[in-house]
Amino acid sequence: PSLSMLVIAPPHHLNGRPPQRVLLALVGAALLLHAALLMGVRLGLPQAERSASATPVQVRMLQAPQPVSVPVPVPVPQAEPAAAAPSPAPPPRPAATPAVPAARAEAALPPAEAPRFEAAASQAARELPATADVAAESAVAAVVPAVPAAPETPEAAAVAAAPASSEGEIPLYRTLFPPPLTLRYELRRGALSGTGELQWRPAGGRYELRLEGRLAGFSVLVQTSQGGFDDAGIAPLRFTDQRMRRDVRAANFQRDVGKITFSGPATEYPLLIGTQDRLSWMIQLAAVAAAEPQRMAPGGKVALYVVGARGDADIWVFRYAAHETVQTDAGPVRAVKFAREPRTLYDTTVEAWLDPARHHLPVRARLSTSPDGEALELLLREMNAPP
Predict the structure, then answer these.
(1) How confident is residue 307, by pLDDT bands cut at 50, 70 and 90?
(2) By CB atoms within 10 Å of each CB, which of 27, 64, 114, 229 scores lowest?
(3) What is the largest CA-CA distance in the chain?
(4) Count H helices, E strands: the chain?
């Protein structure tokens, strides 16, 4: 090589590549330049040049849209009344329609309707307590259908006159009472059915009588009668009547002062000898028929003064109707039928079939309060002595 080439050409490594120190110097310079750019280090440019190199940014103020106002009704304050008025009674709930048994309803459906039926049955099962509750309350109000309470008037606190009987004075009857027994009945009203249990417990000159009616697993009625005995037979001291979802009502037979009072209405009645309540009449009628069998024949009758727990009282005259055969779970029973005909449109109509082989106790009974209303019926299933 010539001398000029040696002067101009940079020194190279033997393999034609730059020396390692030259490469390291170039890499270091590149790193410093990148660091300076990223960290905003001023490189000695005039302020004017830096300002010119910056991109201008424009800012515009945006106004938020106005909210749309929706008118909301504001309650108008009312002046408070001088005295709080009693809240109105809730409207009566409609009676539930008896449901068709699921097995029969499902059998009547075509296969394509089965899924829909299963969904409806599931919904009905979830609503069963409320439905059964309404059906039970409306279907079986009591073994003795409810009667309107005596009206409360300013004169109601005075002792009311006992209802007169077209049959004349209520006679005193001889009585022969059955031993302690428990009678279980099938309870029916329309298409619905349940159970009823009557417990008769006489002991030591006193007695306790209790009837409970159940429907769809719910207790819809509990009636009790407590007292003793006198020359006319059963002599009640206290009668209670509790219906489903209602308070207990009571009739008190105050024999020391000779009057009948009630836990609800202020009505009072004179206490006549032989007076019965709306549960004890079943045992009293059986005791009279057992002691005076001549009344179980054409022309025979038994008159009782019957008092309820809601301020009601009336003469019940039971007349012999016929000898009839009653079909029971224990087989056919040859019974004696007595019937109480109502004196007014909404009096309680009572029919009782007494079995002479079972201490003349009712093996069947039907009660209703209106000519076109559904009757409530008791049909004997079994009768046992208490343990």
Answers:
(1) very high
(2) 64
(3) 168
(4) 7, 15
